[in-house]
Specification:
The protein is 38% helix and 17% strand. The chain has 429 residues and is α/β, with parallel strands linked by helices. It folds into 2 domains: 75 residues, Alpha-Beta Plaits; 306 residues, Aminopeptidase (3-Layer(aba) Sandwich), CATH 3.40.630.10. The strands form 2 sheets. The chain has an 8-stranded mixed beta sheet with strand order 5-6-8-7-9-12-10-11, with helices on both faces. The chain has a 4-stranded antiparallel beta sheet with strand order 2-3-1-4. Helix 6 packs across helix 13 and helix 10 runs antiparallel to helix 13. The chain binds zinc ion. The site of zinc ion (ZN) has 3 residues, from loops. Belongs to the peptidase M14 family. Its cofactor is Zn(2+). It comes from Spodoptera littoralis.
């Protein structure tokens, strides 16, 4: 009886965890005209709504609406003739379901033994940190663990260098990739961990470490990520509390890089795309910059892994194109084809294009910065929003999709890595 009581207490705690999102509705919005696009954008701003994907004609948007704002939001949409569907009337139910599924998966594995890296869990910051330490100790010939700096709250921002030779004296091209710059995009973590697994532990394709060096940074936004494992699963930014305005905190790290900084982002700290006080004002963005500073001559491919939407996006966020845009597009298409060939049937094919043309204008992004400073091929990859087989619950993770997310993204990464290796060889003949 006591055990049963404990169980109820535990379930009660789990259910209480997402109270802050109780009654939040997830709306699918279909727009047909520019006026309707503008209305949805206006409403989202005026009501301070969390826009998961922007509605444009031919592409439905997804908007999260707090309980008390639902009537007004719906009335305005109806008055303007904008079609909408309520995908979830209470997003807390989905969050509870996600928790339940993930904890069941974790139990099957007797907790979490990362040395064998079961791909049915989303690992915490601490678990990933332990794994990276273990990896560096177990594979000293190929893996070097580096601390790029400290986050706002003082957590290490660690990455690994993988090389079959001496990384520092190597002349090979580098593939640099990172995940979790946006905290809530949990499904991006398996993509980098899977790559590490295939480059270090279960090496089945020798050529990938023969002529290519790798830099892999799994948790680019440690504080935000830790925060998203607590009360605020849908937290996106870092945890900077030093912004001087009310109680709002956090900077969108993917608007904080020094390229077109502040031109298409928000100067309001309460908003999710707040760009910070200046370019590289945030220690997390500055840590990533330090990697570019050190290895810019050799980085041939940069992949900033986000979710969601099944997209491979490239520079620049103001609709202008880099001089090698044709080649950037071509490689993007090749990577997309590699992923599409093995993707889940219910996820759409990847869309490849300029980020502003496919999505919306954005400034200060990591991938634009990389392209601008001389990385020849730089992309933001938006992983699929896996939907539990039924709907579009973009950020939520079904354990059954975790390994697939790693596996299919790896197919695209391999295509990109081999392409830049071959073009690097040609340019060095
Ligand atoms: Zn993102």
């Amino acid at each position: 009886m006591l055990r049963l009581g404990c169980l109820f207490v535990i379930i009660g705690l789990a259910l209480a965890k997402h109270e802050v999102y109780d009654g939040y509705g997830l709306y699918k919005v279909s727009v047909k005209t520019t006026e309707q696009v503008e209305l949805v954008n206006y409403l989202s701003k005026a009501l301070d709504l969390d826009v998961w994907s922007h509605a444009i004609p031919g592409h439905d948007g997804q908007v999260l609406v707090p309980k008390d704002k639902k009537p007004l939001f719906q009335n305005e949409l109806k008055a303007a003739g904008v079609e909408f569907q309520i995908e979830s009337d209470n997003i807390k139910d989905i969050l509870d379901l996600e928790d339940h599924l993930l904890s069941e998966a974790a139990k099957k594995n007797n907790g979490s033994r990362l040395d064998s890296l079961p791909f049915d869990q989303i690992y915490t910051y601490h678990q990933v940190d332990t794994f990276l330490e273990m990896l560096a100790a177990a594979y000293p010939e190929t893996v070097t663990l580096v601390n790029a700096g400290k986050s706002f709250e003082g957590r290490d921002i660690k990455y690994i260098k993988v090389s079959s030779g001496d990384f520092e004296t190597s002349t090979r091209p580098i593939v640099f990739m990172e995940s979790l710059l946006h905290a809530r995009e949990w499904i991006t973590l398996p993509a980098t961990l899977y790559a590490i697994h295939k480059l270090v532990i279960d090496v089945t394709e020798q050529d990938l470490i023969q002529d290519i060096d790798w830099i892999i940074l799994p948790i680019a936004n440690p504080d935000g990520y830790v925060h998203s494992h607590g009360e605020f699963r849908l937290w996106r930014k870092n945890r900077n509390t030093n912004l001087g305005v009310g109680t709002c905190m956090g900077v969108d790290l993917n608007r904080n890089f020094d390229f077109q900084w502040s031109e298409a982002s928000s100067n309001i700290p309460c908003l999710d795309n707040y760009h910070g006080r200046g370019p590289f004002s945030e220690p997390e963005a500055a840590a990533i910059k330090s990697v570019f500073d050190q290895y810019i001559d050799r980085i041939g491919l940069f992949l900033d892994i986000h979710s969601f939407g099944s997209m491979i996006l490239y520079a620049y966020g103001d609709k202008t194109l880099p001089p090698n845009a044709l080649m950037v597009h071509l490689l993007g298409v090749r990577m997309a084809e590699s992923i599409d060939a093995v993707k889940m049937s219910w996820n759409p094919n990847y869309v490849v294009g300029n980020s502003a043309m496919v999505l919306y204008d954005a400034s200060g992004t990591a991938s634009d910065y990389a392209q601008f400073i001389g990385v020849p091929y730089s992309y933001t990859i938006e992983l699929p929003g896996h939907r539990f087989g039924i709907g579009g619950f973009g950020f939520f993770v079904d354990p059954a999709f975790i390994e697939q997310a790693g596996f299919e993204t790896w197919e695209g990464i391999k295509t990109g890595a081999r392409f830049i290796r071959d073009s690097f060889k040609k340019s060095n003949v």
